[in-house]
Design a protein that fits this description.
Spore Coat Polysaccharide Biosynthesis Protein SpsA, Chain A, Jelly Rolls, 3 domains, 5-stranded mixed β-barrel, 10 helices
């Protein structure tokens, strides 16, 4: 089974746990199965959960993440280095992203044109039966049931949030009569009465089909050529570019559990535990969820239907129904990213002053930062736990707990973790910026 998982967006509706780098699919709030409750690593993200579910249904599945370049490090952090990634050089909506990922599968991974691919969002809350249905969807496309085979979600209520697929018959697999845009609730009820299904953005096709359609709309030769001219491509969704113009479409019904966890209200409905992190609720609390990433306790008393989320980015205290309207308020907050997961570990900003910034850096054993330099700031590293090696202007030396390393602006430096390693990085300068960085090759 070949699967493209669409992983993009900034997920601002789940602030303060999500930001421009850390989208909602990276937030670890789902309890892992068969995990010792005494350990700290008890939770997994939507991304990790979906990937685990795919591999449970089909251990040999080829999984490719179609994502933005800003998310690549976080994906490697959570899934390892072996997962396939098709990274957009810039965002150009779902049609260019899917074409790029399809060309990646064919030209880079060597998957034949006559093989089927299934495209899924990375962030639905589903059980394993969903991915059994995804596998069946791919088999239908492989068998030539239609040029496009969609998964139609059986509606549970007349939602205004989803588009609708109207099938020609009530069969388990049927030809598609028409698509409908997101309706009001009364119109949605009429669609459901006609047998309408939610469009969950899941569909399958043969690689040759999308590549042929892409060559009709885009002038390119192969993956490398498409990547090089990606910035010039027109922003357009896959639905508008392909689905609405394709006469040969089938839909397969799915009746299992499926939730779109796009807001705090819907996300807390899927949480198995009411508390993640250090929090306490008194007996008067009802339907209260707390997600606390700070190293200080949260106490809630006498609250009902409330979500509390605390991270380095900020603190949210909201009525669950009102949490759906968070986006314009978050858009008005001008703040740098305070936490991010990287391929080598993670960092968390502890303090920001006019001419300094203090960061806690965690490196995983066997990993290292990029070999880099800065023009406008000095840095001081203090190792607080673990062992490793620093390389400063080509000179390597061992470091351990308590060691202090000073680097002036312009010098090249990196740190290599021989064990899990934590350090405090103090940046000193008048113009501290994430853009003040030059990367270099390093031969070890």
């Amino acid at each position: 089974m070949n699967i493209i998982l669409l992983s993009g967006g900034s997920g601002k509706r789940l602030w303060p746990l999500s930001n421009d780098i850390r989208s909602k699919q990276f937030i670890k709030i789902f309890k892992k199965p068969d995990t010792d409750t005494a350990t700290d690593d008890r939770y997994e993200s939507m991304l990790q959960r979906v990937y685990r579910q795919i591999k449970t249904v089909d251990p040999e599945a080829t999984v490719t993440l179609a994502t933005s370049k800003s998310q690549v490090s976080a994906i490697h952090n959570q899934l390892g280095e072996d997962v396939g990634i098709s990274a957009e050089p810039c965002r150009r909506d779902t049609f260019p992203a899917i074409v790029l990922a399809t060309a990646y599968l064919h030209d880079v991974k060597g998957i034949p044109e006559d093989e089927a691919v299934v495209v899924c969002p990375v962030d639905p809350y589903v059980k394993e039966d969903y991915f059994a249905a995804v596998k069946q969807l791919g088999e239908l496309a492989q068998a030539g049931t239609a040029n496009l085979v969609l998964m139609g979600i059986q509606p549970t209520y007349p939602s205004e949030k989803y588009g609708y697929i109207i099938p020609e018959t009530k069969d388990a697999v049927a030809k598609v009569s028409t698509f409908k845009e997101k309706p009001d609730s009364i119109t949605a009820q009429n669609y459901i009465a006609q047998g309408g299904l939610w469009n969950g953005g899941v569909f399958a096709y043969k690689i040759s089909y999308v590549l042929e359609r892409a060559h009709q709309l885009i002038d390119f030769t192969d993956y490398a050529d498409l990547f090089s001219k990606y910035e010039t491509l027109h922003k357009i969704s896959f639905d508008y570019a392909v689905a609405e113009h394709e006469p040969d479409i089938a839909v397969m019904r799915f009746n299992g559990e499926w939730k779109d966890l796009g807001t705090w209200n819907t996300l807390t409905e899927a949480m198995e535990e009411t508390i993640v992190g250090d929090a306490r609720l008194n007996d008067a609390c009802r339907n209260v969820h707390v997600i606390n990433e700070l190293g200080i306790p949260v106490l809630a008393m006498g609250l009902q239907d409330v979500v509390i989320a605390a991270s380095s980015e900020g603190i949210l205290i909201s009525d669950k129904a009102q949490s759906s309207y968070i986006k314009p308020f978050v858009d008005a907050i001008d703040q740098q990213v305070m936490f991010a997961e990287k391929s080598w570990g993670s960092f968390r900003v502890l303090d920001v002053e006019e001419n300094s910034m203090t960061i806690k850096v965690t490196l995983r054993s066997g990993h290292r930062m990029n070999y880099h330099s800065h023009d406008k700031r000095d840095e001081v590293w203090t190792v607080v736990s673990g062992k490793g090696r620093t390389i400063v202007d080509g000179m390597e030396q061992p470091v351990q707990t308590g060691d202090v390393i000073t680097m002036q602006a312009g010098c090249r430096h990196t740190v290599i973790a021989d064990t899990d390693l934590q350090l405090i990085e103090v940046q000193l300068g008048k113009d501290i910026s994430v853009h003040d960085k030059h990367k270099y090759e390093l031969e070890l």
